[in-house]
Design goal:
Blueprint lengths: L15 E4 L2 E4 L4 E7 L14 H14 L3 E5 L12 H18 L4 E4 L3 H9 L4 E4 L8 H8 L3 E4 L17 H18 L7 E4 L8 H9 L1 H5 L6 E3 L4 H5 L10 H14 L3 E4 L2 H17 L5
Parallel strand pairs: 3-4, 3-10, 4-5, 5-6, 6-7, 7-8, 9-10
Antiparallel strand pairs: 1-2
Helix pairs in contact: 1-2, 1-10, 2-3, 3-4, 9-10
Length: 295
């Protein structure tokens, strides 16, 4: 049995991460609220394109229990088309400028583009969340220059092609090897290891079976010693085991996946439905506290 698969989770990484001057307490599982400023995201594409509605949604998620808000301007759903840096900046910067100034929690920017990383850091973003794990030209240098925490995610292929025929020798071992390589590249570029988080990339170049194997063995990734972020909210891996339920009927399955991940030691749970997931995490925290596994 792999470490952390069942039983006591492994404590991973620093208890508190400095997100551009705002602390993110990871002594227990925390929620990252998803804010997509895109017309084509799989779950809520187009709902928050207007700055006013995006800001309102961010404040609502904080009120419901989000410890950090993740703002993205480019869809990374399977088959999504790429957008230019200029278009991504036009989408995210007006919202980031408001949220970084007014929200009481840190704001993360979901991007792989160096220009967007730098611009977001310039207005007060507190974290970089990169699905390409800083593999784009100039991304390592840009992320290092911001001094911000960075989440490195595993993805096989790219959004436009990643779901065509993903394959692994052993999905968890392969994901761990990739993440270890990206951690080494990031630290070599001058990014302090204590500022790194890991995301196994559920749904990014993985079959349903790959996703559930990763979730079953998530404790192995937690045991790598860095805070683990997971994003399974409303994804097709949830619908696939619910008789192919559509996106708007995946809440309960998403809650179950979040609980499993948190119990395995994940410290950030990226979700659309913050209020419901916060209630689930309150139960998880009560169990962890009684078992002496919190903090």
């Amino acid at each position: 049995m792999a470490p952390g698969d069942t039983g006591r989770p492994v404590r991973n990484g620093p208890a508190v991460i400095d997100c551009g001057g705002r602390p993110l307490d990871l002594t227990r599982p925390r929620l990252m609220g998803v804010l997509n400023l895109t017309p084509d995201s799989f779950s809520d594409g187009g709902r928050f394109m207007a700055r006013e509605s995006a800001v309102e949604q961010a404040f609502l998620m904080v009120e419901e229990g989000a410890a950090i808000i993740d703002v993205g301007g480019e869809s990374t759903r399977p088959g999504a088309e790429a957008v230019s840096a200029e278009e991504e900046l036009e989408r995210v910067m007006p919202v980031l400028e408001v949220l970084c100034r007014e929200l009481p929690v840190p704001v993360s920017v979901d991007t792989s583009k160096p220009q967007v990383m730098e611009a977001a850091a310039g207005v007060g973003a507190g974290m970089i969340n990169d699905v390409y794990a800083l593999r784009a030209p100039g991304a390592l240098e840009a992320a290092a220059a911001t001094g911000l925490p960075v989440c490195l995610m595993h993805m096989q292929g790219e959004p436009r092609t990643m779901q065509r025929s993903p394959g692994y020798r052993d999905v968890c071992s392969d994901v761990m090897a990739f993440l270890g390589e990206r951690v080494a590249a990031a630290t070599a570029a001058g990014i302090d290891r204590r500022r790194l988080l890991l995301d196994p990339g559920f749904g990014f170049g993985k079959t349903v079976e790959h996703n559930y194997r990763l979730l079953a063995e998530l404790g192995r990734i937690v045991a790598m010693g860095l805070p683990v972020l997971v994003g399974m909210s409303r994804k097709s891996m949830i619908g696939a085991v619910l008789d192919h339920a559509p996106v708007d009927r995946r809440l309960f399955g998403s809650l179950a996946a979040a609980v499993v991940a948190a119990r395995a030691g994940a410290r950030l749970i990226r979700v659309h439905d913050v209020g419901a997931t916060a209630e689930a995490m309150a139960v998880v925290q009560a169990v962890l506290a009684e078992a002496g596994e919190s903090g």
